[in-house]
Amino acid sequence: MDPDIITLSADKGNVTVIRQTEEYKKEIRQLLDPTTHRKLKQDPTNKITKQTNMLVRSFSLHPNVIPWSFKMETLPPRLYGLQKIHKDSTPLKSIVSTFGSPTYELAKHLATLL
Fold first, then answer.
1. pTM of the prediction?
2. Per-residue pLDDT tens over the stretch 58-95
3. Which of 3, 7, 23, 61 could form a disulfide with 65 if both were Cys (CB 3.0 to 4.6 A apart)?
4. Where are the alpha helices (H) located in the chain, listed in sequence order?
5. Taking the alpha carbons of 8, 30, 12, 76 in that order, is the dihedral positive or negative?
6. Is the dihedral of CA 94, 41, 53, 100 positive or negative?
């Protein structure tokens, strides 16, 4: 596999797009424009995990809910981009994946209740 090339899915059409890795990274950095986003001094994932676990403990939940609620090994949300091939300039559509994040399982459970 060539590290200078990246493959990613298109936003629409079930198509695979092949790009130069540096161009992709440059576009992702542009999505994280410093005028609208700021870099945090430290990763807040552990703090959010602890706060979420404390919140879940404070409610009387059914025992079936508790095992997934107290996850200690979590991941920060991840940003990636899908190519918008149906647009003229083919910009990236930003996607934030929260799978494995501190509140993912809780949000998934709440969504089933709603």
1. 0.74
2. 877 666 666 666 667 889 999 999 988 877 777 888 99
3. 61
4. 21-31, 45-57, 66-69, 104-113
5. positive
6. positive
